[in-house]
Amino acid sequence: MDLRRHLLLPIMALVASGSTMVAAPVQAQTVEDGTITVIQPRPVLRRNRVDLSTSFGTTLNTPLYRQYVVTGSLGFNISETLSIAGTFEWFDFDDALGGKTQDYEDVIGTTVSVPGVAPLTWYGGLDVNYVPFYGKLVMFKKVIGYWDLELTLGGGVIDSSDSIHPAGAMGVQGNLYFNRWLSMNLGVRNRISVEDYGFDESLTNTASAHLGFTMFVPFGFRYRTAVVE
Fold it and tell me: What are the structural domains, with CATH classification, of the chain?
């Protein structure tokens, strides 16, 4: 028996089970020799859809001063792999969240000098996002989830130490889809700026890890099927 026919039975059983996080229609084509080819389109389409993302995160590489960040972005997907988005981030939560760490106090106690820090207040800019990888994963041997990986490069302005100045941004984010319009995002984002610490200026990287959700509008979409004669 042809190898493709051996593979056909488990594929059809998987499709018929219906145990997927993101359902997608299945197309079947029959050629002249009787072979049936089963094709499952991408479960989620991005093109011509607006995405609204929100997330909460914490800084990673600032041992002297811990900050938390709330991020919101509104984007438009030009294609399945390319999108642009306006992004705004807020860091200033006073003493409720974050602030000087124990390392900051230890530096003062050890060196009898106050270390320079440049706490961020907010960041706003424009991002270009590119999706180089996407696929599926199987969880608990029953549930199939759809995911993609998104790379970000952007620029804008940042407010730190009562000064607004240019800044760049770059990041990587993974998305796990629950259905056609909702996903969970998990990633790392870095802002690059020149900060004034009072005694000198220095190129500074502020990286953070974040977790949040993304919603796509419109909620649904249609597949375009090519007619084969």
Answer: 3-39 (no CATH), 50-217 (2.40.160)
